[in-house]
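User: These chains co-purify. Model them together.
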Amino acid sequence: MDRCAAGEMLKNNFPEAVRGVEEFRGETTVTVDNGMLREIMRFLKEGETTRYDLLVDVAGVDFGGESPRFMVAYMLHSLKFNNRLRIKTRVAEGAALDTVSDIWKAADWFEREVYDMFGIAFKSHPDLRRILLTDDFAGHPLRKDFPLKGHDFDKPVTVCFDQEEEIS
Amino acid sequence: MPETSLMTINMGPQHPATHGVLRLLLELDGEVVVKAVPHIGYLHRGLEKLAESMTYPQALTLTDRLDYTSGFSNNLAYCLAVEKLLDINVPKRAQYLRVLLSELQRIASHLLWLGTHALDLGAMTALFYTFRERETIIEMMELVTGARLTPSFVRIGGLAADIPETFLPRVKAFVAEFPARVDDYETLLTKNIIWKKRTRNIAPLSGEECINYGVTGPPLRAAGVLYDVRKAYPYSSYEDFDFEIPLGKNGDVYDRYLVRLQEMRQSNRIVGQACEKLPEGPVAATDAPLVVPPAKDEIGKDLAALIRHFKIMEGGFLPPRGEVYASIESSKGELGFYLISDGTNKPFRMKVRTPSFVNLGALPRMIVGQMIADVVAAVGSIDIVLGEIDR
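Assistant: Joint model of the two components:
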């Protein structure tokens, strides 16, 4: 199956969920509604004619003032048919996306990273914790309104060893 | 029934066998690992955030610092993504030199891996041999790029400069002698009974599990799954070269070792072919004057060239709106850059898909049920670099 066919097939199978199919520089991107995300992903992974069995990457994007504010892009690869597909879905601030970590195990860490960097929650994720930053980190750094130098750039660093003793 | 209790220990972040600052929280029943939770992020520098504040040419220098054992490959992956976004063609000579240098870099990275992995498992001798050849490669890289580890030599549209005359004879000499060197490493390890006992059937991961966890690179191919970006989506003229993709069967530490050794031999073949077939011509795109800065001697003679040089260096260039994903097969697996452009001179979003990050995610699956001493073998066999995990 060639790449363009995946967009057509999704349009036929999920007419109410597909928002658009784009071609740019030979890459196909399908924008879908986040309500049907899990069904679409399961279809793409398990369908005989699609078989996108490798989840290559998941990327969060913050569009700042736009509404819905965030976008999550999933890069898929089919080992059988040797082609790539990108699925994008928009998500509003404060809303949660459905996890795909039970469809691909790889999504576990990817979704944790998106959560860590953007604060987008994933429903039914088995272990939704920050992954790169510390648990007590304030804010989500890849959001556009997060300052490049961080909130505490010019404040003295305090390292707490326990409640009573503080060394600064 | 005697009372048993589990013991929780921290392996790392400061531990020589974790190859950086990886912290593993291990729960042990005697010597058997019951649960393993990797904690990462100690080396997080916010590369993706930083890139959003830099012009496209500036952000190149960030990529060297991802996988610092193969800086050249990282540069290549980034430039391929930007070139795809701009839709510019790179001259053949530059493409062949990119292949040549990134395969040399792959050999250097695998040599570093082999030496340290063997050292982790108690076979110290291999390190002295592999570092000798790695040094030869790094000196050649220095000859061409001026840097040992962070070359920033691939530029958007081509390369920073052509190779010096003394380079190719040195590469040819290396290509001629290297297969015998790999034979040397093999005599040390491949049939060594202690090496086999420490690596065979240790931390196995089946092909299906690898795919499910998104594992790419040598660990995936050691499990018998054929996926190599160089063959799947040939970039930089890889389709012109004749090479094979070595596959393993069992997906254990030993097969990962065998696959990487074979890969070094194949990379050596590619380097040899690139030397033979290297065409003449420019090393940077000639039809993209707004992207590729003019040559130094032009700047001295032509005022327009001087202005153009200044504008590119100071403000970068304006790619069209759109988004692209480009990836390469780095020494660790699929290294991809997802770039979103909003039409300004800075990337709106740069997401780096680093192989070590994804491959490390499968580590708990590999080591649960194994002995604690084998955790070191498992971590070493994925060949992680924390610089690209934490970004």
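The first strand of chain A starts at residue 18 and ends at 24.
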